[in-house]
Amino acid sequence: MLVTLSDSGAADQYHGRIDRIGEKRITATEPVPDGWKLLKFNCLTSLPPNVGAIRWGKDSSSNLLAVEVPQVSDGERLGPFRVFEIEAATRKVGKETRQVEAKREFAKLLGEELENADDDCVRWPKTGEPPKPKRPATLSY
Q1: Which has the higher per-residue pLDDT, 113 or 15?
Q2: Which residue ranges make up each domain of the chain?
């Protein structure tokens, strides 16, 4: 099961988590425990990014997660995000989808917060387009 959960409420940090139900136990893993490992938005905040589960990949061996600047941030523009495909078993980072394209591609899956994210920050580089990050091919923790 792919879920999104909060540390302690709507104003706290969100995490995407995979819960697997086995014969004798339930295991929980967080594919991206630290959103900064994938992307740092230079236009906003010092708060850690939210990570939200969107859906499983094509064959459930990967999942799509949104990494988002929190809406409660102290910056001037709120909520920009990107979507990353993460291989569940290895945490290998696959396809990255930028915000405007993600809104088109995953419109029915995003939820109100991501759907209404401010596009200005990602459309005009001078107001904070996140640079293409140098990120590891595989996340390690």
Answers
A1: 113
A2: 2-127
